[in-house]
């Protein structure tokens, strides 16, 4: 498990660098996103949907505030179209991350983890816990992209990956988009509460998962 955690930290750090760059340069601020969506809304709802999909897709390459964008999608498009646009963007990002890592993963894995034994340990650990890690990845803006890349890198079957990704992304998109649809500038409370509750829920679930791993590891040590 240590090898997998090491790999996660390295990949997450790479994504975090893009987040810092975006944050410090102001290239993709929340204010700019709201402005772009407002302009798109004045043209057509379809332009808003396309912009939402594109913003969530580039999250694979540049860390963006996913939850905020989905809430804004619900605000500008309504619950249904906002959720559909968000889910499409999330799935495009996840599938692309999986496929790119599937193709170049072995080389990237060798680059990030030099030791062959550590590489195999990371692969075995993700095969054991990867499905659950994808389910809980919405606890952090960077974790979903990390788990998508790890899925392809470690050879997780695509069917298994996409099932976990859909289970994780669908309720997330539906809830966040609905919260945005019932929020307004005068009453942003539903969006704020949803953001807090979703984040807290996934972090609590992640804590329980971490305890499960520790207990599972301890049982394996005792029985070995």
TrEMBL record:
It comes from the Bacteria. The keyword Cell membrane applies. GO terms for cellular component: plasma membrane. It is a multi-pass membrane protein. The chain crosses the membrane at residues 6-26, 47-75, 81-100, 161-179, 191-209. PANTHER family: ALKALINE PHOSPHATASE LIKE PROTEIN (PTHR42709), UNDECAPRENYL PHOSPHATE TRANSPORTER A (PTHR42709:SF6). This is TVP38/TMEM64 family protein.
